[in-house]
Amino acid sequence: MKRSTKQVLWLVLFGVVLVAPILIMLIAPEPSGRQLWRDVAVGLGFLGFALMGFVFVPGGRLRMMTEVFELDTLYKVHHTLSRAAFFLVLAHPLLLIVQNPNNFVALNLLGAPWKLRAGVIAFALMVLLVMTSIWRQWLRLRYEVWRGLHNLFSIAVVGFALYHIFRVDYYTALPLQRALWVLYAVIWGGIIIYIRIVKPAMLLRSPYELVDVVEERGKTWTLALEPVGHAGMPFKAGQVAWLSVGHSPFRIKEHPFSFSSSAEHPERVEFAIRELGDWTSTVGTLEKGTRVYIDGPYGLFEMADHPGTGYIFIAGGIGAAPVMSMLRTLAERGDDRPLHFFYGNPTWESIAFREELEMLQEKLNLKLIHVLERPHDGWEGETGYITKDVLHRHVPFDCTECFYFICGPLPMIRLVTRALHQLNIPQSRIDSERYEMA
User: Fold this and answer.
1) pLDDT given at position 240
2) Domains defined along the chain, listed by start
3) CB 351 within 8 A of CB 217
4) At a CB cut-off of 8 Å and minimum separation 6, what does 255 contact?
5) What is the rounded CA–CA span in Å between residue 126 and residue 416?
6) How far apart are CA 227 and CA 225, in angstroms?
7) Quick one: which of 392, 375, 370, 384 has its CA closest to 412?
8) Can you give the pTM of this predicted structure?
9) How far apart are CA 77 and CA 293, in angstroms?
10) Tens of pLDDT along 68-112?
11) Rounded to whole angstroms, what are the CA distances from 289 to 211, 233, 286?
12) Which residue spans within 163-233 are E strands per DSSP?
């Protein structure tokens, strides 16, 4: 079955599951004494809490989803659904209060019954969840702390929401509606158990050992890992994995990185990591022999899914990591297709893999174009950013079967994608992956 067909089926299934509580409200016998606006408020609350529960699905790195949708798409959907759930749940109490101001008593956490308090607590936790996610950097929350809070708040929101729904017991008094929410609870609980218990237990059975730490240019380090007691992990060049370094995979401290080594050698995998945050600043101090667990591979940002007569790679900074995996893989295979690599960096000295890229030009049919933001005196290459003009000067745009890979910070991806569209490159020949998973 084609991936596009699978995507459509998933979207249809997801939509049906989300609106199922509303459909039951429309077709099942209506509880007595209910009014239209109260029904609307309850319907929005059902839809919002259902949406909140199923936010776990696109953000849970479930293989059945990551093999169909791009990682970027899943994370965008995760963020979008979270915001939509927030506003739908917010509309629930607002409509109830507008319909009957006496319902304002439900907001009294000291005097209201627990069935109402649980709903208020669920919404308050949802507010904290959204705020800490949107303003994580402004609040200066460490990634690990934010991940822990994010998971804790998410589970608590779902738990209090389910308690509120079942204890209020109006529409859930109907057997079909109650059965649906019990099914939801089972699905959500199963996903949480799989993500937090089953998957880490599986990773414990396939550990890796850090065998080398190589310093690259531009405050970048390459971690080389070898499997312990197993054959290793097959992956496709360009894919990504989550690493738990020096601790159990049960701890919520994994970090996402792209494979940077050749896919021809699963017995030794490498990840290029730049010093950009609290944890990454300590990568250079890791000791050989450190135990590492790899959750992956994930992602569709890879050549096998995008065949072409040639490839144009465009990267900024550490976004070159998956490109290096692709180039190294192509070199191992003796590939002779035309390749272009536009590589943007602040300075000449900050170019990671600079010397190896020069050598790869001898092994591959590769044209390397460095673009420097702050060029040194005497620099005669491209300067500034990777713009339409820069691309047009170096790429034969009559190559109708070439494919374009873009990886780097989100502003760069937007700029380059816009430039390619201006050069009449269709979106179907462009794939991008932002190097910011959190």
Assistant:
1) 93
2) 3-203 (1.20.120), 208-298 (2.40.30.10), 307-434 (3.40.50.80)
3) yes
4) 143, 242, 243, 245, 279, 280
5) 36
6) 7
7) 384
8) 0.85
9) 27
10) 888 777 878 888 888 888 898 888 888 888 877 776 666 666 777
11) 6, 18, 9
12) 208-216, 220-227
Residue with tokens 């965008």: 76
Q: Which residue has the tokens 């995760």?
A: 78
Give the span between the Cα atoms of 424 and 268, in whole angstroms.
40
Structure token pair of residue 69: 């949708």
* Whole-angstrom distance, CA of residue 418 vs CA of residue 437: 22
* Residue type at position 18: L
Whole-angstrom Cα Rg for the chain: 25
- DSSP 8-state secondary structure symbol assigned to residue 30: P
Proportion of the chain above pLDDT 90, given as a percent: 42
- Given 3-state DSSP classes, what are the helix, strand and coil percentages for the chain, each rounded to the nearest 5? 55, 20, 30
Q: Match 């991940």 to its residue by tokens.
A: 147
Q: Answer for the pair 89, 124: CB distance below 8 angstroms, yes or no.
A: no
Residues 6+ apart with CB under 8 A from 195: 56, 60, 61
Distance CA 139, CA 60 (A): 24
- State the DSSP string of 103-127: GGGGG-TTTS-HHHHHHHHHHHHHH
Q: How many residues does the chain have?
A: 438
